[in-house]
Write a structure and sequence with these properties.
By secondary structure, this protein is mainly β. It has one helix and 26 strands. 4% of the residues lie in helices and 35% in strands.
Length: 205
């Protein structure tokens, strides 16, 4: 017998592609809009209570060693994409928002705290290509995967790119269009390419 969740997803025209129909966990009050695509190892995708997934969102959990967790009250806006890649994971805390057209990868592990705001068109990628060997194709040289951690109460402005190995401290603000290549301290405001400190929130270091 198919689960109530499966029937609800079918009514929403959710596209499920995986070894089983049921997600690994789903809290109460979850709302999933139409034309959402969920693929890969579905049992490793877990949604907390009152999660909202807007139309045309894509969730990909690549293999049994990968997982996606979305905390209570978080929302994924239209056309957001979350993709783990083999062995990677994406863990989003409670009351977060991932706005339209964001791309979040999980290669080396992506951890996002609670109450984080991620504006439109952001790209967060916890991996980097190796490329030093001139006698081999870049695509054959493998990846560096250090992971990314983002603390609680962070605001990430529109079109920000966060690169592998960065840790973003709690309360930080990242200005629109910035490229983050190094750690960002708690309660700091950083802007630019590459992102640099311009001040601290509240005027304190």
């Amino acid at each position: 017998m198919k689960s109530k969740l499966w029937r609800r997803l079918m009514r929403a025209k959710t596209k499920l592609f995986g070894p089983q129909f049921n997600l690994g966990g789903i809290g109460s009050g979850v709302r999933i809009a139409s034309n959402v695509e969920i693929s890969g190892v579905l049992k490793n995708i877990r949604l907390g209570s009152n999660v909202r997934i807007s139309k045309n969102v894509t969730l990909v959990c690549h293999d049994r060693d990968s997982y996606i967790e979305i905390g209570d009250g978080s929302i994924l806006k239209p056309y957001a994409m979350l993709m783990t890649h083999p062995g990677g994971y994406i863990r989003i805390g409670s009351n977060c928002s991932v706005n339209p057209f964001c791309v979040l990868y999980g290669h080396g592990g992506l951890e996002i705290g609670n109450n984080v705001r991620i504006a439109t068109h952001c790209v967060i990628i916890p991996a980097d290509h190796r490329f030093d060997n001139l006698n081999a194709l870049i695509t054959d040289q493998g990846l560096i995967k250090n992971g990314i951690k983002i603390g609680d109460n962070v605001w990430i402005g529109a079109s920000v790119t966060i690169l592998d190995g960065c840790q973003i401290g709690a309360g930080a603000v990242i200005g629109a269009g910035s490229v983050v290549t190094t750690d960002v301290k708690a309660n700091s405001v950083v802007v630019g390419v590459p992102a640099k400190l311009i001040r601290y929130r509240g005027g304190y270091e």
